[in-house]
């Protein structure tokens, strides 16, 4: 087979486009808010990771503008060489304090954090032990590291223990999403730590969906369980609650010192631009000061969960503002997505291979800035469309 044959043979997306069921790369004409404009039409956004609703916050935008004026548009180099600004260091200190660790290191994306940290921490004679449903950036990180990899069944402690007993290397790192990005359930961190300590492993939490959502003032999953001191590495991203792009790793000062001199995705890639860095710093301040956001995010989550369950939807194992609705076949999830969009609600579908065949989902996610009226309106539409497509039973007459 020639190099380019795969291009011609890739027809899945074109088939969906022809059937009017393609909903990727939708073009948004407004800010990432509780409602967005698409094709000139306002739709309720239930497909964003902007959990605290900070991407359009005046203080966050002002901070970005001021940094742009002072430092220009980019750093033109990596952190190691010419790309470290005073505001990178300030942000690192703020993040370390936020998650309760000695030191932090900022990367240009969360994806790059996982690649760089796993490359640095897991050597030839070590093993990464991962939950099967961890994020793709962790899986790719294990591929870049020279160590061994073992997977355990999702949130299954017996499977984790069995994996640990069969792990032959001395160096072991368990890596787990704090909040699982597709199903919205929370990792069993205290049990994972008990097993890690029993078998001599360290723990790294990917808290992309935990920071800003769990713990006091949004400090994350380790804080939520009160186990920050027992968790060696805490990773976070700025592309969700923290309203920008970039990511960080936090740990003790020696570990961060080591990672910053070894992680290839940090050393060989340009540093976070000044405007992004300043907006994240402002977003952390606003998150801590405006604590009503966390409260409202969880209130919206409770309302939506209750409405979905009352209507008869299967919301899977969700415990957070990420709420999956189990639909079944991929085609039905695409149809549901299309009908919801036509009726004014933006959602994402999750189909195989991201989930098992036959377990396709609609992934809903909330923001602190959704009004309760918007949540109810979206749920009225969701119920009508669910009945129309036979995903839930019609109301008894
Ligand atoms: N980890 C998890 C669990 C994620 O959901 C994501 C983003 N989808 C990442 C890491 C990567 O983060 P970023 O968007 O900053 O690259």
How would you describe this structure in keywords?
15 helices, Aspartate Aminotransferase, domain 1, 2 domains, single chain, 3-stranded mixed sheet, globular, Aspartate Aminotransferase, domain 2, 397 residues
Characterization of this structure:
The N and C termini lie far apart (59 Å). Helix 8 (189-198) links the parallel strand 6 (171-177) and strand 7. The chain folds into two domains: 5-56 and 291-388, Aspartate Aminotransferase, domain 1, CATH 3.90.1150.10; 58-289, 3-Layer(aba) Sandwich (Aspartate Aminotransferase, domain 2). Helix 3 packs antiparallel against helix 12 (274-289) and helix 7 (157-165) packs parallel to helix 8 (189-198). The longest helix has 20 residues, at 292-311. The chain is α/β, with parallel strands linked by helices. It has helices at 5-9, 12-18, 58-71, 86-99, 110-121, 136-144, 157-165, 189-198, 221-225, 253-262, 264-267, 274-289, 292-311, 330-342, 372-388, and strands at 35-38, 41-45, 103-107, 126-131, 148-152, 171-177, 202-206, 233-237, 247-251, 322-328, 345-346, 348-350, 360-365. The strands form three sheets. The chain has a seven-stranded mixed sheet with strand order 3-9-8-7-6-4-5, sandwiched between helices. A three-stranded mixed sheet has the order 1-2-11. Strands 10-13-12 form a three-stranded antiparallel sheet, covered by helices on one side. Bound molecules: 4'-deoxy-4'-aminopyridoxal-5'-phosphate. 4'-deoxy-4'-aminopyridoxal-5'-phosphate binds at residues 109-111, 135, 137, 177, 181, 206, 208-209, 237, 239, 247.
């Amino acid at each position: 087979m020639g190099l380019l044959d795969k291009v011609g043979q890739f027809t899945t997306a074109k088939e969906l486009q022809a059937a009017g069921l393609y909903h990727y790369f939708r073009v948004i004409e407004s800010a990432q808010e509780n409602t967005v404009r698409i094709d000139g039409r306002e739709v309720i956004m239930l497909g964003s990771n902007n959990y605290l609703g900070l991407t359009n916050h005046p203080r966050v935008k002002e901070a970005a503008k001021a940094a742009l004026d002072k430092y220009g548009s980019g750093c033109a180099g990596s952190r190691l060489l010419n790309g470290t600004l005073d505001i990178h260091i300030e942000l690192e200190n703020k993040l370390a304090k936020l998650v309760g660790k000695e030191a932090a290191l900022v990367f240009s994306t969360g994806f790059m954090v996982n690649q760089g940290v796993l490359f640095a921490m897991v050597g030839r004679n070590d093993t990464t032990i991962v939950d099967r449903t961890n994020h793709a950036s962790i899986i790719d990180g294990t591929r870049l590291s020279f160590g061994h990899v073992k997977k355990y069944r999702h949130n299954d402690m017996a499977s984790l223990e069995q994996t640990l007993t069969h792990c032959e290397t001395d160096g072991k790192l368990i890596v787990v999403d704090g909040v699982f990005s597709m199903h919205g359930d929370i990792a069993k961190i205290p049990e994972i730590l008990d097993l890690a300590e029993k078998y001599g492993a360290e723990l790294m939490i990917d808290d992309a969906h935990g920071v800003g959502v769990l713990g006091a003032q949004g400090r994350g999953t380790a804080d939520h369980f009160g186990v920050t001191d027992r968790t060696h590495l805490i990773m976070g991203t700025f592309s969700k609650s923290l309203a920008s792009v970039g990511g960080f790793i936090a740990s003790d000062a020696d570990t961060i010192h080591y990672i910053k001199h070894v992680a290839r995705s940090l050393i060989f890639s340009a540093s976070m631009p000044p405007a992004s860095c300043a907006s994240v710093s402002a977003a952390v301040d606003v998150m801590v000061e405006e604590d009503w956001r966390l409260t409202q995010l969880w209130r919206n989550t409770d309302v939506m969960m209750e409405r979905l369950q009352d209507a008869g939807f299967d919301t899977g194992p969700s415990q957070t503002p990420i709420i999956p609705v189990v639909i079944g076949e991929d085609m039905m999830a695409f149809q549901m997505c299309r009908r919801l969009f036509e009726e004014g609600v933006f959602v994402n579908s999750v189909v195989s291979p991201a989930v098992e065949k036959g377990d396709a989902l609609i992934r809903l996610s909330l923001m602190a800035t959704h009004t309760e009226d918007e949540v109810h309106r979206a749920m009225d539409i969701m119920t009508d469309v669910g009945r129309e497509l036979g995903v839930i039973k019609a109301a008894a007459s």
